[in-house]
User: What shape does this take?
Amino acid sequence: MKGLFIGVWVIITIFIAPVEVLAQEYITSQFEAEVTEVLDEQIVESGNLSGIVQKLQVKAIDGELQGRMVVIEEGQFVRVDQPKYNVGDRLIITQISAPDGSSQFYITDYVRSEALIGLFVLFVLLTIIIGRFAGVASFIGMVYSFAVIFTVVLPLILRGVNPVSSPGSYWRVTSYCSWHILSISWN
Assistant: This one.
């Protein structure tokens, strides 16, 4: 009896009462932009907090809107850490496009890629200067390990293969051994 009930319920839900779902997709994208003009700036107070509301004109540096000007109002909500943006600041902008074609723009963060690259280069140089051969060998082992992970292990995982009991484990062992020999054993 229970099996009959389940069978009837499955038939009803699949064939007799289909539900059509019309999903509306909001598309999110990000691009880099530079502040070209501060159009308006006001101090806003909410309770015992004060913040700054700015209306900024930014020029898209990359992405679909490259070269176009966009106006963004930032600071509608009073925050303790609300930054003040100036002309020339490079920002990461998030665009949310609605199904009706309208778009909203939000400032996500400052562009920090140049500073991060500089810190990475400084890290590599200090490691090589202080560690000498062991520092160079460590970086060679790390590059080899990343190459194995991204070219062997991750593709196996994406295909559904167990990485522990697969040929990828051979590469992991050789990667570890090469890193160990390059960075630790040759002192």
Summary: The chain has a mean pLDDT of 79. The radius of gyration is 27 Å. Strands lie at 27-46, 49-60, 69-74, 90-97, 103-110. The chain has three helices and five strands.
